[in-house]
Design brief:
- It is a single chain.
- The chain has 755 residues and is of the alpha/beta class.
- The chain is 34% helix and 16% strand.
- The protein has 22 helices and 22 strands.
- The strands form four sheets. It has a seven-stranded mixed β-sheet, with no helix packed on it. Strands 12-13-11-14-15-10-16 form a seven-stranded parallel β-sheet, with helices on both faces.
- Helix 8 (226-252) packs across helix 21 (708-723).
- It starts with 14 loop residues before the first helix and ends in a 7-residue tail after the last helix.
Amino acid sequence: MPGLDDEVKWVRGVGPRLAEMLAAKGIRTAEDLLYHLPFRYEDRQNPRSLDELKVGEMASVIAEVRGFALLRTRKAPIFEVTLGQGRMAMKCMWFHGGYLEGKFHTGQTVAVFGKVEPSRTTRNFKMINPQFEILPDASEDAETRMLEVGRITPVYESLGGARLASRWQRKVIFHLLEGLRGAMPECLPRAMLDRLSLPDREMALCQAHFPPEGTRMDALQAWATPAHKRLIFEELFFLELGLELKRRKMRERAGISFATTDKVREAIREVLPFHPTAAQKRTLGEIVQDMREPSPMRRLLQGDVGSGKTIVALQAMLVAMENGYQAALMAPTEILATQHFLAARKLLEKSSRNYRIVLLTGSLDEDRKRATRSLINRGEAHLVIGTHALIEEKVEFDRLGLVVVDEQHRFGVLQRFRLMKKPNQAEPDVLVMTATPIPRTLALSLYGDLDASVLDELPPGRTPIVTRRVPDERADDVWDFVRKQVEQGRQAYVVYPVIEGSKDDQPEFDFAQDSPAPGSTEPSPPKAARKGKTATLFPKMVKEANPSAKSGLKSAMEMHEKLRTGPLAGLRVGLLHGRLDADDKEVTMRRFQRGEIDVLVSTTVIEVGVDVPNASVMVIEHAERFGLAQLHQLRGRVGRGAAKSYCILMTGERVSEQAEERLNAMVRTQDGFELAELDLQMRGPGEFFGTKQAGLPDFRVANLIRDKQVLELAKQEAARFVADPGTDVSEAERTRVRERLKEAWQRRYGLVEAG
């Protein structure tokens, strides 16, 4: 019998050919196969009889196949099976079910699981698209029947067609567990398991795959049994242990101890444009306290839209510059980098200290790049602002003291700290900023090696933004409202999801997808058409539908021309999108900031950082196509001045259920942290930042939405173990923990080595 670390091809019932199919699913070892847990369970100890069923309940039924047929319809084929028990019968129907032809035969015993619905034609019930499994007949061996009926039966996601379906997995995993009985190594200290009342690994895996009689079905389906909790805790513990070791190892390194003298304090006061909020004072105090320490700072600064993160970061950079060091700020886009550059230059012009601020982006011509790099290398540039161009090998700092990374999640994981890895440099402090409020579970798993500061208060003068949903047929009302706002001296944004129309309608950035969270067993919600609810912002109703409304996505380029020559004729209408070259983008944004453009038609390129206090209206067309974080960021572009501001969410005819939930949440609240939690629940961790490559570990058991409490417990236990494993933890147990940690971080989580 193979050990846990052996290749899966050596497991009984697998072999080389099936091992290749399993490897495509990430299952390469015997252990990987054991940690591929059932996604649900069926109670085949006491399945429901047909006369016990109730409409609306989810039920498991075992019955005999009495008939089947493939029904041809105009839209799609429907496969129908009639199941019977005695005189009772139930129909099961699968839409688009042509693939089921030939699978069923009269007399077969079948287990189905689904929602019980009333039948229109008979007094019996029906199930639509139920999960099903054909059970072994009496001629099959007793062992096979033992795994299929008369017990709580695990149901697995298929690993590659019918050959690797649930029935095959049950048999292979059962034999693997039997072969490892009494020989499965434990990876957590016995004292920790006893203190937390968790079973050992062997028992946890056995009971998670084959629950003992009497296990509560609701606990199984919620992954809340002791066996599940043990396996979830194990995975999260090793993640948090690695992060805790990284954090402590960082504190042991030699960094820069910045002084905060009266001269430094005066420099900060000199450039502040307003009286700071209590939250800004608190977070700056936390950052400065870290900067005083001789070890390198690693801190996350997060806050809601408009909470004033940039001014806090600028004050931290002043501390570094007043101590004779350089500071660098890296932004994800040239527009945002340029805006940071202009804002910093404007604020620091008030100072008497003659700071030299430079901008380095990829679009600069080679002569300007070369001159700027020379200033940086000689130490004549005190504050360096730029894009990823800052991490190029040609860029060498003279005395880099502080690195600020804005919108961290838009950079690749490997770029995260590359600035501080420059050779022959002291280890600089690093401040990571994000304008996307991050739920605590994501912060603990993605940024767990950083200390966190949260800006939870908006500066004075930020007025609440009136948010309304408006169906597309009321577009004329919207443009009338925009025109009236411009007549009052205000400006407006109009945002579209794509740059120009095409048959593919490709967005500039990924849209939110109405797909279930990773690990969910629920099907994708139907794309049913649902009209937007009537808004109350506009008094007038338009009876005729907007003739420009159509099934395809409206684009920024198309609508810029239509608005400029149509509903907004006579206004100064500008266009901004990601395909413009950097100079054109900068010219357009400066004209909008100076008030030379009344309405800026744009894509999501203005999603973050753009600050125009006079802009009071944000119109988002096809709002149903955007994620919550994007919508909230776009809304945050207005409401930056004293005037009352508005966010208008225009929707097309087809709005999915998840899009309805997103739009309703936008109307209900402006709390970015509340919206972030909802966004995480709706889209799942892997899509929260709009990309699956945001540095999230690849969990195989844990779920960050479901397992919040276990994650908190794992963090506490990891910190406790690193501080003092305890005298009741043997050296052999510590060695196993270290080995498991290394394996988890390097292979399972796909992260760099811990510690």
